[in-house]
Write a structure and sequence with these properties.
This protein is an alpha/beta fold and about 350 residues long. Strands 3, 4, 6, 7, 8, 9 and 10 form a seven-stranded mixed beta sheet that branches. The protein has 17 helices and eleven strands.
Amino acid sequence: MERSEFTKLKDNVEYRNWLSNFSTKYKNSQIKASCSVNYVMLAFFWGIGKDLTRIKQNYAWGTRFFEQISKDLKDLLPDVKSFSPRNLQYMCQFYSLYSELQIANQVDSQLGEAEITNQLDSQLIFSIPWGHHKVIMSKCKGEREKALFYMQKVHENNWSRAVLLNFIETNLYERQGKAISNFKVALEAPQGDLAQEITRDPYNFDFLSISEKYNEKELKDALMDNLQKFLLELGTGFAFVGREYRLVVGQTEQFLDMLFYNITLHCYIVIEVKITEFDPRDMGQLGTYVAAVDGILRKNGDNPTIGLLICKTKDDVLAQYAVNNIKSPIGVSEYELTKLMPAEFKNTLPTIEEIENELK
């Protein structure tokens, strides 16, 4: 083909469109192939776990059961690395945790995949990488509901193993949806339930580096300096709108601590952070801010604005009475901050300006 013919081909609109879509199609095919391989592999591991559980029950094996099975499988398939004693134990745990799954061969499947039919969401279970499953099984200790909770979070948020481990170790399962609120009364169903589900109590701020004698401004500054981690802790769907967000209300200016928009709930969320114990008087201020955002920023298609007060400590009974007396949808949570630097250590650290000057 001569150069002029190449030029003509590049000028062809259909060919240019094909080229622009090629990369996307290729990547999508790789993702689908990867998901299919993962599905087949996990179904295979589940089946091995089922077989080994039956064998161990039916035969009088000694304490070195998994070591012997591992040796025999490695002799049979020397190039396969998946049959270590520990991995075989994980496979048995995997089967035990989800033993209700029923697997039948799907004859017409080109990949020989397993067809799973029962109450458990097999597509969810078999879509999570094996490494993530091992972390979940190690930490959840046979608690299936807890394991399914973290699997759902991995599936929704594409968490790495490190992020998954962090949320397990900070007890997200126990904290999720636990804020004191009036959401189910102040919001129509199912918005009230969804709003409650995105809350946490307490919020974990241990990703901050802050001194023991911090004030409110220092805490908020630290949260903004670690905005990505703060958004991760807040949960799915939070988009940052602004700090000290200015609203002109009548003849006054009001400044909101932090304003977010949640793309899952389709609503604004006003967050006020207090470094003191919960005070019911803060409810009036937060309720005013929520009403102001509803009146000024909320557009057609937006759901009612939500307020969230995050304080150092709270009396749950007092907080519940306080939110019950507010018409605006408001929740109250505590925060945890245990990794504090000694106050005297703070003065020895270089400032941002000093670091920048040193780098220059």
